[in-house]
Amino acid sequence: MKRGVIGILACMLLATSLLLAAGTSDISESAAINENLPPVVSDRLASFEVGISEDACDYDSPCSAASKNLDQPDKDRTNGVSSEVNELSPGIGSSFGEPTFVYQTVVTGYYLASGRGIAVDPDGNAYVIARTIGNENDILVVKLDAEGTVLWTTYIDGSDHDYAEDIVLDSAKDVYITGWTDSNDFPIVNGLDDTLTGFRDAFVMKLSKVDGAILYSTLLGGDYTDQGHGIILNDAGEIYMVGSTGSTDFPTTEDAYQDEPSAPLYIYTDAFITKLNAAGDEILYSTYFGGFKDDWAYDVALDNAGNIVFSGKTNADDFPLVNPIQSDPNSIFISKLSADGSTLQFSTYLGGEDFDRLGGMVLDSEGFVYIAGSTRSISFPTTPGAYQEEFVGEILGCEVPFGGHYNCDDVFVTKLGMDGSGLVYSTYLGGSRVEECRGIAVDSQGYVHVVGYTNSSDFPPNGTDFPAEIFVSKFNPSGSDLMYTVTVDSGSANQGHGVAVDDEDDVYFAGAVNVPADVYIAKITEGPPVWTNIFQDPARSTELRINTHAETFQFLAPDYDSGVVHATEMTSVGDFLFGEGYAIGSFASFQFSAKLSDDLCLARAVVWDPNQTPKLKLYWLYDPAGAE
Known about the structure:
Elements (H helix, E strand, L loop, with lengths): L5 E2 L8 E2 L15 E3 L45 E5 L13 E9 L3 E10 L5 E8 L3 E8 L5 E7 L5 E8 L5 E7 L19 E7 L6 E7 L5 E8 L5 E7 L24 E7 L6 E7 L5 E8 L5 E7 L17 E6 L6 E7 L5 E8 L5 E7 L22 E2 L5 E2 L3 E7 L6 E7 L5 E8 L5 E7 L14 E7 L6 E8 L7 E5 L5 E7 L4 E9 L8 E2 L7 E4 L4 E7 L6 E9 L2 E3 L13 E6 L2 E8 L7 E8 L6
Antiparallel strand pairs: 1-2, 3-5, 4-31, 5-34, 6-7, 7-8, 8-9, 10-11, 11-12, 12-13, 14-15, 15-16, 16-17, 18-19, 19-20, 20-21, 22-23, 23-26, 24-25, 26-27, 28-29, 29-30, 30-31, 32-33, 33-34, 35-36, 36-39, 37-38, 38-39, 40-41, 41-42
């Protein structure tokens, strides 16, 4: 994103300012409409915000782009799309590329429709699974191009309830979905199993990338209830799916890790892990997995060696464990089977003393495991230096209608080692009310993106203005800093499901807006990184540190006292940039400003003095009305 460098001659000839302005637009109410909408932003003191106007400030009124009243943000309540990023404390800059919407697409014409999962191909096309109500609960699949225009939709419905839970693409960009159905007329094409044998069966379906036509579809299940929840493919196109089964005869293979249910006679459910060949007509591996009480597997991924990592929920006190991080029974589990399914390489509980809910799991390119979800536990494990080490949800501050009180949920984001032996980092994320996380993605640089919903007015970093908002938050690779939060007024409670990143690290997410509910899909991009977290490190008093994801960085700043412009070339070392030295040159500066009132601005700049260590100076800029 381009930035306007604003000269504030009347305030100070030695500084320039960056002002960010808000844009507004309505989301269209027509079916399958794409709107390239700029986000509506709240103007809050000392925070970067998206929606930049090149002519927002001029020499006559250098700060006029900011909100006319900081206590009453100018926000379009019919649209409700907002975007906000890290709040800046005095003496600390915040830099990364500013998040902006490439598109926001609302698909209407369906009843109670909400996006539940999303995948992206190398061309930037997005594929979304959604739930909607037709005869019963039905499935909607939507494909959008890189600009957010709907290319096709596929409606999948039987005579009873049908749900899609996960979506993935193969190397040819065809679409695979998994879920479950109660319909005895669910569409089956070249299926391994075409008969609903119990009350509910899991399914796998393949759709054409061209038009969404069903290329392949099969049921998978036994004599009771079976649900598919997660799906992934290997490089050969073989299909791995996980879910839950209450059946006593769920199909297993001879090499199954657990070939019988933990508790027979339909008392409890077990997780299952099943591998199909690329054609979908043969079960290559299948196993039960769990303890004596209910177990559900929700997410599955493959590491570089083809080992199967899966996670879910358990109520079992005897859940199978290997080298656990936590051995005391808890709500969430993360487990890893060898590629052939014969050996449990690690398996652990994870959680706190109260209710914990898994929202998603993903692996990075090295095989580190990331999970996210929501928790009411004040003892959920966090790590020193994490962004939010303490639970901040109001204790017993939330209430079940006509029921008891409970701790208001916070989000958690946790990174585990490749062998599951410990926590790399773990953090809470939340405000005083309720948050839930419904998806997680990791980009190529190790930044973590989580999606969910919040109704906390103090949700980090700068709070929210609506009672039901979708959020997307981005963490730095160490989990120590929140890079930004983008929020969308959904109007529909408990929405914000599924997040994905493309090869350019742009972010896509899905959910619902409007009442009762319409499918919402959005794409966020970031402009070039600018500058972030500028501070003097006491341990490195002769160096200036700038925390950014740019490989190289040049900073030019005028010395307020001498008028000399000092320049330094920075080189990245890990998450930080190091450099020292100065040069006299032409007047130039990278700075930012925040409006304090109609005639007062605050600008910050790092100044190099050749006779002193680098230091940060604060400038108070006064602009008399009508100054030239």
